[in-house]
């Protein structure tokens, strides 16, 4: 278990990496902006983190009283969430692991792409420090002109990658930095071979936690953060991109074990994706399965969903269900293979000269967000698919949208 002092050390390490991790050179760095939701690094940061989350109508719409209701819900939930973080060491390690992954990525990038070097990563958390404003102001101070927005969610969802990018463009306008940087973006990478390889290696390491004579009997349960069904109904691509990752990983494993996909971390009373991870565990127990291993397939590092929800809550449920041995495959965290993958993803993107993937231009069929899928000051001309018919948007006007 991580102590409070260890959490503080992680925060200091994150700041140190973010401020120094770029290669030397006289040219301004190419910025790689690592977008994620973040997590509270200390007990004191829990309520502000939850307040930022519940006041964000793009993630949890609460209507005209969003700010007041969001603050109220955050205050009510904070004691329980603080207790969860207390049981995993006091705070989230996501800042620590993002710094490790970012430093490894740019070290490799400087070698892979000397023409765009030096590279520097900037952590841009949505609800915690260092936040998007911190990243953008530091980029300006560093003289950055070329930037890549790099979603740290392998599979795209409007609620995660999409909303993080929308927030990035809003912050650029708010800070009057819309003309400061030329942007491209990496919005998804669910089937990247290096990512698949890194997950496969961790599953193999996870299977080593079981006695050799039962490893082939272990049920591999992939677990991903769930999503409201109404978001899926609009056309969100997350669920099938997660399934695509699972299929690629199992193909790499030559389908050595039985496997399933479950969904965790539901919030609120609305219908979310099913089956839930909890229900799958209980069902496997009723069916007489004795060996189960959970694989966090949509998370790139440890945080409360792995360290508390899986390792503590689901482990207790597995024991109650009669499962003899319940384990979790390691998270990607400091995986060298994963750092190789991150560098390759960015290098391939830079070599392409494109502003974004073809898929990013496609709004969900039932999209209700008029600002979704913009790019601020794109590196090449860019237009959303839904604007082609009406001619309502051009690349030159994107930066000036309200």
CA-based gyration radius? 21 Å
Q: Percentage of helical residues?
A: 40-55%
Number of helices: 13
Tally the structural domains. Answer: 2
Q: Percent of residues in beta strands?
A: 5-15%
The coarse overall form would be globular
Number of strands: 8
As laid out across the biggest beta sheet, the strand order is 2-1-3-4
Gross CATH architecture of the largest domain: 3-Layer(aba) Sandwich
Secondary-structure map:
Blueprint: H1 4-20, E1 30-36, H2 46-54, H3 66-87, H4 94-112, E2 119-125, H5 132-141, E3 146-151, H6 158-174, E4 182-186, H7 193-207, E5 219-225, H8 229-234, H9 238-252, E6 259-264, H10 277-286, E7 291-296, H11 304-320, E8 325-328, H12 336-352, H13 385-388
Helix pairs in contact: 1-4, 2-3, 4-12, 7-9, 7-12, 10-11
Question: Which features characterize this protein?
Answer:
2 domains, disordered N terminus, globular, 4-stranded parallel sheet, Rossmann fold, 402 residues, alpha/beta, disordered C terminus
Would you give an account of this structure?
The chain has 402 residues and is α/β, with parallel strands linked by helices. 44% of the residues lie in helices and 12% in strands. The protein contains 13 helices and 8 strands. The strands form 2 sheets. A 4-stranded parallel beta sheet has the order 2-1-3-4, with helices on both faces. The protein is globular, with a radius of gyration of 21 Å. The protein starts with a helix and ends in a 14-residue tail after the last helix.
């Amino acid at each position: 278990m991580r102590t409070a002092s260890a959490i503080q050390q992680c925060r200091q390490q994150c700041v140190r990496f973010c401020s120094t991790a770029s290669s030397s050179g006289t040219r301004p760095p190419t910025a790689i902006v690592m977008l994620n939701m973040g997590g509270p690094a200390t007990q004191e940061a829990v309520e502000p983190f939850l307040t930022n989350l519940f006041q964000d109508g793009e993630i949890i719409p609460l209507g005209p009283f969003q700010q007041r209701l969001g603050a109220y819900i955050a205050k009510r939930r904070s004691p329980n969430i603080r207790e969860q973080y207390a049981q995993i060491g006091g705070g989230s390690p996501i800042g620590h692991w993002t710094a490790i992954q970012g430093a490894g990525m740019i070290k490799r990038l400087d070698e892979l792409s000397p023409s765009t070097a030096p590279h520097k990563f900037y952590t841009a958390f949505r609800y915690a420090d260092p936040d998007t404003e911190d990243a953008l102001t530091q980029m300006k101070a560093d003289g950055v002109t070329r930037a890549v927005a790099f979603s740290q969610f392998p599979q795209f969802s409007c609620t995660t990658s999409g909303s993080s990018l929308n927030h990035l463009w809003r912050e650029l306008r708010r800070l009057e930095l819309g003309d400061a940087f030329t942007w491209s973006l990496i919005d998804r990478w669910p089937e990247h071979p290096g990512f698949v390889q890194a997950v496969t290696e961790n599953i193999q390491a996870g299977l080593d936690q079981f006695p050799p004579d039962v490893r082939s009997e272990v049920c591999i349960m992939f677990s991903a953060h769930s999503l409201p069904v109404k978001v899926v109904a609009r056309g969100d691509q997350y669920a099938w991109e997660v399934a695509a990752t699972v299929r690629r990983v199992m193909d790499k494993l030559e389908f050595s074990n039985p496997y399933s996909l479950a969904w965790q971390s539901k919030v609120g009373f609305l219908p979310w994706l099913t089956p839930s991870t909890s229900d799958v565990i209980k069902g496997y127990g009723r069916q007489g399965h004795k060996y189960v291993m959970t694989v966090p397939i949509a998370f790139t590092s440890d945080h409360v969903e792995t360290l508390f929800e899986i390792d503590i809550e689901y482990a207790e449920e597995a024991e109650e269900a009669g499962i003899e041995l319940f384990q979790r495959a390691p998270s990607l965290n400091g995986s060298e293979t994963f750092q190789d993958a991150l560098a390759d993803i960015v290098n391939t993107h830079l070599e392409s000269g494109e502003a974004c993937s073809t898929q990013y231009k496609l709004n969900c069929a039932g999209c209700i967000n008029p600002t979704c899928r913009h790019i601020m000051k794109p590196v090449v001309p860019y237009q959303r698919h839904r604007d082609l018919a009406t001619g309502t948007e051009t690349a030159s006007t994107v930066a000036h949208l309200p």
